[in-house]
Design a protein that fits this description.
With 939 residues, the chain is an alpha+beta fold. It has five domains: 236 residues, tricorn interacting facor f3 domain (Immunoglobulin-like, Sandwich); 143 residues, Neutral Protease, domain 2 (Orthogonal Bundle), CATH 1.10.390; 137 residues, Immunoglobulin-like; 120 residues, Alpha Horseshoe (Zincin-like fold); 119 residues, Zincin-like fold (Alpha Horseshoe). The protein is built from 29 helices and 32 strands. Strands 1, 3, 4, 6, 7, 10, 13, 15 and 16 form a nine-stranded mixed sheet that branches. A hairpin with a 4-residue loop joins strand 21 and strand 22. It is found in: Cell membrane; Membrane. InterPro entries: Aminopeptidase_N-like_N, Aminopeptidase_N-like_N_sf, ERAP1-like_C_dom, M1_APN-typ, Peptidase_M1, Peptidase_M1_aminopeptidases, Peptidase_M1_dom, Peptidase_M4/M1_CTD_sf. It is an enzyme of class 3 (hydrolase). Belongs to the peptidase M1 family.
């Protein structure tokens, strides 16, 4: 490929000259160019890109001047006559005098007469000398330059320390989703503008260049000594946010399967030994997806790379998937089973995107969930297929449900499919609703459609929209055809009607089941479930199409998740109650929602609850499916929280846990008790709650042999997770010998001659041992662990240590830790700062310190995270869980009102934080005395 660059600058001078003659598109741009009149949030539709040629020279030699200069050549098809070209560009220095616009069909060359900008929407408008005519194709060449920023978006810099020389090694990497390709090159930066890309990277010959496609050729670079040009093959048509490139000195591990795409896993040289697991797992899951979707992976190669500084967990760039180190690297000597499962889950998620998101892309960010919900759900199928012994499908399904039952019970939640009219709103959509709720409703659909029609519908959808853009209605159409073909739904039903009730409205329902024990029937009604009890029942609007699966004490058939009936809605959203006939008599229970197949809560009449409690506490409780045991715990505790059920029922149901030996019901219980505990620990009755928790946990703690290292004798993987979780709670509540054993392990480690090389603490117990020892230790214990953090080469181990360091109960130690977290000279990377902050803020001693620190330093913290405010929003979570008094709520609400400028981009998170605080205040006023009484009766 030939690139046109009118002016060849001397080494080191190009950026300076561009700054002198060009236009800086950034904060100060208004002073340099006229403001554009065009102010709609979407690009005009008169033009479409046909192809991009992007040539980028990256300079990593001088740490004080890390930068790039580039030229982009775009072939533009004119669909309607127009006198301007509107692109996106942000924080780029454009050499306007050297912009070239020419007609490719040999007509008279055009030119750019003037430029305008719109800083709000990042538009760069080129007004042309002559009108661009419909049907023509023009070639636009733009030279530009910029620094390699440190903001973890666009084209940015990252680094790692060379273990031999102890010097920083620099690399460059991209992160374009959702709207940061514009910060790397002028482009049509919307997902609907797909085009092929030819990327050519210029860099020093000691580095490696990577991009979406394989290398086509490497040639000498005549502009800079010892530099090369690396040209990549032309890509398939794709959205700008999926383009990726990097210049680095990494090593890689090949792991290509026969008859498959070239597969490589990259990391810094001193971490390449941690790539083995991802390199082995990745090609397997890719092959599984090829079978599931009936479409081969469309590119000739795929690289996955672990980036030291990375804002997201990972990013699905087509053919060059980028990851945070913790999401890709796994060390058998330092990472726990939970760490390993996270790597598998993230790799499976990103590779699922190669079809859902990359091959077929949403038309606009409204349907972001089509990418994220699908990748989340399909990833769980992939992990289950490759590692069935983990039982991860059940774990993920319950985990997603528990998250959504909490998040979507807030009035300030939002629909899965939501309108987007600002770039800032796109970032807010990358949340638990798009991912976990999206995944949950897809699982629901999979279960009511059955395997054949679900798979056939997906394959039809992917084939029809390959290399194109789609919206959710297109998917519903393909799945409806499949459902009718395989008779999974009556002809009068269609997927759009059913699924719109789940994707276009906020929230989820609670079904009230009132049995008539004389007529052996039950009346079912639905309403939206909300945590805020100040909202009147009449305002709890919404109607959901609900597939009703259920079983009885006589049947106990939990394997049948197909709906036996449906709750329907009217055309205007009217709620139709449902009557279920042929139920058993008064001595048998009924359970709705087998295997938690659908996102709803169930409130039974009191008799049915008591029949369930009887089976759980004295009967054959294991015959109730493990997911439904977890469901009963969660429903009972939530309904008690909002006053829809009394705590006596909930606490009596929890009593059965003394018999329970499975992971999922305990996870459900602990998730709920954690929230209650964070409120009660601030009250005089905490002593009763603590004794109650000790009574609850002791049997399972002893059954699992406490904190003794019995892991090699545990055959079931989820029992490893159970032992870890129970150990964590046991040490928090001083159960048996938990604290003493943890301290003993820690002392043994401290006595090791080379503690960075030899660690006697069992892998899966390290988070418990570290936190407990810091909590009950002194500053010397803290400093020992900090030294291990600084010296560690494993991201998972570093995060475990980072969160454990926040467990101290010394005010001055915690205050020092907060200061260190936001000191750029310290060893904590920006992306990891929130883990340190959250650890302090969730600690009962650290909570008030962290809240004061946040409120006193909000401007500095905002500046620290800007422009990626997502991480800052996560600092709010500990406050939402622990503010329990009206006066503290009022203070925080006033703080938010006064500090709006320093909380820009956090509007959704702040709304949800304030609403959660309010529900805590309500709970304490309504339930605190009742709960305390119930607990004292059980002791």
């Amino acid at each position: 490929m030939v690139f046109w660059c009118q002016v060849v600058f001397g080494f080191g001078m190009q950026l300076i000259l561009l700054l002198a003659v060009g236009l800086v598109l950034g904060q100060s741009a208004q002073t340099l160019a006229s403001e554009a009149k065009y102010n709609y949030f979407r690009l005009p539709t008169a033009l479409r890109p046909q192809k991009y040629d992007l040539k980028v020279t990256t300079h990593l030699d001088n740490p004080k001047d890390l930068r790039f200069e580039a030229t982009v050549k775009i072939l533009i098809e004119v669909l309607e006559n127009t006198k301007n070209i509107t692109l996106h560009a942000k924080n780029l220095t454009i050499a306007e005098d050297d912009i070239i616009l020419k007609d490719t069909q040999g007509k008279k060359d055009n030119c750019v007469q003037s430029t305008e900008i719109n800083t709000h929407h990042d538009f760069y408008v080129l007004n042309t000398c002559q009108e661009l005519e419909a049907g023509s194709v023009y070639e636009l060449t733009i030279p530009f330059a910029s620094e390699l920023n440190n903001q973890l978006e666009g084209y940015y810099r990252s680094s790692y320390k060379d273990p031999v020389t102890k010097r920083k090694r620099w690399l460059s990497i991209t992160q374009f989703e959702p709207a940061s390709a514009r910060a790397a090159f002028p482009c049509f930066d919307e997902p609907n503008y797909k085009a092929p890309f030819i990327v050519t990277l210029g860099y020093h010959k000691n580095y490696t260049g990577l991009s979406n496609m394989p290398v086509k050729k490497i040639t000498p670079n005549d502009q800079f000594p010892d530099y090369v040009w690396c040209e990549f093959e032309e890509s398939v048509p794709m959205s700008t946010y999926l383009l990726a490139y990097s210049v680095n000195d990494f090593s890689h591990k090949p792991s290509t399967l026969p008859n498959s795409a070239l597969f490589r896993t990259w990391a810094r040289p001193n971490a390449i030994d941690q790539c083995d697991y991802a390199a082995e797992f990745g090609p397997k899951v890719l092959q599984y997806y090829e079978q599931l979707f009936g479409i081969k992976f469309p590119l000739p190669k795929i690289d996955q790379i672990a980036v030291p500084d990375f804002s997201a967990g990972a990013m699905e760039n087509w053919g060059l998937v980028t990851y945070r180190e913790i999401a890709l690297l796994y060390s058998a000597s330092y990472s726990s089973l939970a760490d390993k499962q996270r790597v598998a889950s993230v790799v499976a998620h990103e590779l699922a995107h190669q079809w859902f998101g990359n091959l077929v892309t949403m038309k606009w960010w409204t349907d972001l969930w089509l990418n994220e919900g699908f990748a989340t759900y399909v990833a769980s199928l992939g992990v289950e297929n490759i590692n069935p012994e983990w039982r991860s499908m059940e774990q993920e399904s319950l985990g997603n449900m528990l998250t959504i039952f909490r998040k979507d019970a807030l009035e300030s939640s939002h629909p899965i499919s939501r309108p987007i009219e600002e770039v800032a709103e796109i970032a807010e959509s990358f949340d638990q609703i798009s991912y976990q709720k999206g995944s949950t409703v897809l699982r629901m659909m999979h279960m009511f459609l059955g395997e054949e029609s679900f798979r056939f519908g997906l394959q039809q959808y992917l084939q029809k929209y390959s290399y194109k853009n789609a919206e959710q209605d297109n998917l519903w159409e393909s799945l409806t055809q499949a459902a009718h073909k395989y008779r999974a739904l009556p002809k009068s039903y269609d997927i759009k009607t059913i699924m719109d009730s789940w994707t276009l409205q906020t929230g989820y329902p609670v079904i009230n089941v009132t049995r008539n024990y004389e007529s052996n029937s039950a009346k079912l009604t639905q309403e939206r479930y909300l945590l805020n009890t100040q909202i009147a029942r009449a305002q709890r609007l919404g109607c959901w199409w609900i597939p009703l699966s259920y079983t009885t004490q006589g049947e106990q058939d939990f394997n049948n998740t197909a709906p036996k009936a449906w709750m329907e809605c009217g055309k205007e959203g009217e709620i139709y109650p449902k009557t279920i006939q042929d139920l058993p008599g008064r001595d048998e229970w009924v359970i709705f929602n087998t295997q938690l197949s659908t996102l709803y809560k169930v409130n039974y009449d009191e008799r049915n609850w008591r029949l369930l409690i009887e089976t759980l506490t004295t009967g054959e409780f294991q015959r109730i499916h493990v997911l439904n045991r977890a469901q009963l715990i969660d429903d009972a505790l939530y309904l008690a929280w909002t006053g829809d059920q009394n705590y006596e029922i909930a606490m009596r149901l929890l009593e059965y846990l003394q018999r329970e030996r499975e992971y999922l019901p305990w996870k459900s219980a602990f998730e709920n008790l954690k929230r209650v505990g964070r409120i009660v620990r601030q009250t005089p009755n905490f002593e009763y709650f603590k004794r109650y928790m000790q009574k609850l946990i002791t049997p399972i703690y002893l059954h699992l042999s406490g904190l003794n290292d019995t892991f090699s004798a545990i055959p079931e993987q989820d029992q490893v997770l159970l032992k870890t979780m129970v150990g964590n709670w046991a040490c928090q509540y001083d159960v048996e010998d938990c604290v003493a054993v943890a301290r003993k392990y820690y002392t043994q480690w401290q006595e090791e001659e080379k503690p960075d090389e030899k660690n006697p603490v069992p892998l899966n117990l390290r988070s418990i041992v570290y936190c407990t020892s810091i909590k009950h230790g002194n500053d010397a214990d803290w400093q020992f662990l900090w030294a291990r953090y600084v010296n560690s080469n494993v991201a998972a181990e570093k995060r475990t240590i980072l969160t454990s360091l926040g467990c101290s109960r010394e005010v001055w130690v915690l205050q020092r830790y907060l200061e260190m977290t936001y000191d750029s000279k310290d060893a904590i990377r920006k992306q990891d700062s929130m883990w340190a902050f959250q650890a302090v803020a969730f600690n009962e001693v650290g909570f008030h310190l962290a809240k004061t620190y946040f409120m006193d330093n909000v401007q500095a913290i905002y500046k620290f995270y800007h422009p990626i405010t997502k991480d800052m929003s996560r600092l709010l979570l500990p406050f939402s869980e622990q503010v329990i008094n009206q006066s503290d709520f009022d203070k925080f609400r006033n703080f938010v009102t006064i500090n709006r400028p320093s909380l820009k981009g956090l509007e959704q998170a702040l709304q949800q934080t304030l609403e959660t605080m309010l529900t805590n205040v309500q709970w304490k006023e309504r339930n605190y005395i009742q709960l305390s009484r119930s607990i004292q009766e059980l002791l």
